[in-house]
Fold:
Amino acid sequence: MTAEDFERDLLSNLYNRRGTTIESASAQDAYETLALTVRDRLAERRIRTAAAHHAANPRWVYYLSAEYLLGPQLEQNLLYTGTGAYAAAALKALGMSPEEVEALDVEPGLGNGGLGRLAACLLDSMATLDIPAVGYGIRYDFGIFRQTFVDGAQIERPDDWAFQGDPWEFPAPDDRQAVGFYGTVDNGVWTPGETVLGEPSTILIPGYGTDTVNFVRLWSARAAKESFDLSRFARGEYAEAVQDIVRSENISKVLYPDDSTESGRELRLKQQYFLVSCSLRDIVRRFRIRNADWADFPAKTVIQLNDTHPVLAIPELMRLLVDEHGLEWDRAWSITRQTFAYTCHTLLPEALETWPVSMLGRLLPRHLEIIYLVNQHLLQEVTSRFPGDLDRIRRMSVIQEEPDRRVRMANLAVAGTAAVNGVAELHSRLLVETTLRDFAELWPEKFHNVTNGITPRRFLRLANPPLSELISSALGGDAWLRDLSLLSGLEPLADDASFRQSWRAVKRRNKVALAAGDPDALHDVMIKRFHEYKRQLLKVLHVATVYQRLRAGGTVPARTVLFGGKAAPAYHAAKSVIHLINRLAELVRDDPAVAPYLTVAFPANYNVTLAERIVPAADLSEQISLAGKEASGTGNMKLALNGAVTIGTLDGANVEIRDRVGAENFFLFGLDAHEALALRGGNYRPRSFYDADDELKAAVDLIGGLGFGDVVDSILGRDEYLALADYRAYVDAQDRVDAAWQDPDAWARMSILNTARCGFFSSDRTVADYCATIWKVGAHPVAVQGQERRP
Ligand code: NBG
Structure:
């Protein structure tokens, strides 16, 4: 393809698909036309991928996830199709600026945080590694809320991400699936009381440097045909005339409806079943196209459950096999257990989902019966292995009896899958030792670790072009984009003064571009969801301490502290911390004794787009969760890969990052997981730490003085996440950071070594691990004219 071809296609799309002309084209026309032109390139590859997969009849990976944070698509797809330069030239010829057009590329925020972004990174890597895979999810009308600050407090606004339409999607109204809810069961035959349609929309997922294009299929809820009540409308009852439509379509209206009300909780459960039911029908349909015998189902299908949200897929597959396809129970159960795998993304027992038996039984009466039967099998197995161990049986039962009867989704997940994995070494070990211990004792061979990863295409190449160029010129090419372990080739350059200088120049340039503060100041970055266990509050205590020291006439190397993140709308403690940070930022800014040395910046509405701007500018990465609480973290990987040095606890993937980058290139502090557990279990008195440390006392008092008595009460009272216990070690580690920062050459060396030694954290490696240990699938490259095409 040439630049002329591209421009011709662009014009043709402008005329024929947007129905407009150069003279009257708006910026939105330009954006959509460009998107369609690039999408056409992907579609061509998709055709070849589909043909290759059809011929091979391979084993498929189906990834079920309630969340995907795909990030903006335009730049990615320009890169993956190699059309970036053509697009820039064509836009220029048409008198349009690429920046103006890119600004219209809204990211679909269909997730909350790490779990949803991980799903997107895995899709990227599956396509890049030529793994036949389909992602399934929900096309929420409103994604994660848009965060604004009003007087420093978080206010949530609806994220109407597809308000202008979404040029990346292929809606397929003719592929709708019917999903039942409520109703009655008679002798194993379910007659639903309500039926909603799931309408799929497909977004193409290209691999990098390969012809494979996979896809993610997102379901929207639609009312059945003729749900509109014409007669009520005629009587002027306009709201009533559409009420059935509204009720049906509410299912995919918002990401995670507020679950502080009964109806909100039921809506969430409905969403989960909606996702599962639509997706499984699609999976079964795809299987039946090429296969006749159910015995082959597990050999051709692996369904990865991303956390517990899609775990209803287990009883749903049983229902499809037994009730709709007439298989015997035992045969269906054997197929089901071989087909599914489950990834657990937490250690917090309170984060493991449970549903009231009464609610589940009302919404999905047949599924509850199936769950009871599954539970019977499970408990028989437990009893025969551990006769008389009633406590164990009670703990392992899928049904919790006390204080109220609930269905434990994690127990169902472990019972109904062939493999269970945690997402970092420490996490996987703690799952086996604590959260899922009983199950690990019953089925030790089921438990695995697959350490998370991130895609270097988005989080290095697209987010940080200057650093990518420097790396490519140092390594003599960009093969590292498909084999991130090649970054180790940078190691010797850490000792090369001129390379270090170039490295620092890139970092400085990224800070200038971000414009969050003095580009020569240390950029200290804490970006992640707001949660008490992640301890943004510990960071606040450090900022307050620096403030007090400066007020007392001390000096420190200049720092810009950057926060980014959202708190769940009903999570008041986390929202107080957000408010507090904004208040502290003002205090610092308005104080002439402090402002020259310290800036606190908190750009609103942290999302993938913003992460791509902040990460390249970071010098210091804050990974300070209480040890034993963060399953993995993936922001830690993004920051380290971009040359930020970590200050962190021995938690989640920090442990593996430190092992790889070297203890001397990592600022470690704080309690480890066992010490934290012991302190929590013993007689922890946060106030004794407060009384014993003048700086801590002053920092806490400052927070109280700013009017955040609730925050102070919570840390002096209970301090669930041991912020006060770790405070002194943390502040001392920050003092070591300040000292290290004074030697720019030594810092650049640490920074380079962080990047050079982070190749392991590519999501390509993560996918390769899943393939080898859990999925047992191989690559199916798309052959072009009888050859494999490789860059
Ligand atoms: C999150 C963990 C993170 C982890 C991501 C991806 C949930 C339930 N879990 O530590 O908190 O990095 O999952 O695995 O969102």
About this structure: The pocket of N-acetyl-beta-D-glucopyranosylamine is lined by residues 113-115, 118, 307, 345-346, 351, 423, 452, 630-634, 652 (CB under 6 Å). Confidence is low (pLDDT under 50) at residues 785-791. The chain is about 50% helix and 15% strand.
